[in-house]
Amino acid sequence: MATDSCRLIFMAAHLCADFTCATRCTKFMAAHLSADFTCAARCTKFMAAHLSADFTCAARCTKFMVTHLSADFTCATTFTKFMVTHLSTDFTCVVQ
Fold first, then answer.
1. Which residue in 51, 54, 61 sits closest to 84, CA to CA?
2. What is the predicted pLDDT for the residue at 84?
3. Second label for 59, Cα 20 to 30 Å away, from 1, 46, 69, 77?
4. How far is CA 46 from CA 17, 42, 58, 74, 83, in A?
5. How far are the Cα atoms of 47, 50, 68 from residue 94, in angstroms, in the given order?
6. Would you say the C-alpha torsion 64, 67, 68, 70 has a positive or negative sign?
7. How many Å apart are CA 92 and CA 59, to the nearest integer?
8. Cα(33)–Cα(52) distance, integer angstroms
9. Can you give the pLDDT at residue 58?
10. Which domain of life is it from (predicted)?
């Protein structure tokens, strides 16, 4: 998917020291957020836009990531912080 590719490239540019984490977290989200499909679909949409359209979904999605990536907590928290801080700063890339 173009958006996923663009997002991954954007993450790589901003998380050069943690590219493996970015890649693994992206794969994890794609594979496992479907455990809560409704939230996953909505989260994907608002994260790709501006991370502020649906706080309830955001909270659930973040909690899910932290819970299920607890074996790699640093990756989970780094990725979450990255998304909150940077994902909306390259809007053109994110929404392509």
1. 51
2. 57
3. 1
4. 26, 6, 8, 24, 11
5. 9, 9, 25
6. positive
7. 25
8. 19
9. 54
10. Eukaryota
Q: Nearest to residue 8, comparing CAs of 92, 24, 75, 70?
A: 24
pLDDT at 42: 53
pLDDT tens for each residue of 12-69: 555 444 445 555 556 655 555 444 444 555 555 555 554 444 445 555 556 655 555 5
pLDDT at 87: 52
Tell me if 51 sits within 8 A of 80, measured CB to CB: no
The owner of tokens 């649906």 is 54
Structure tokens at 86: 């940077």
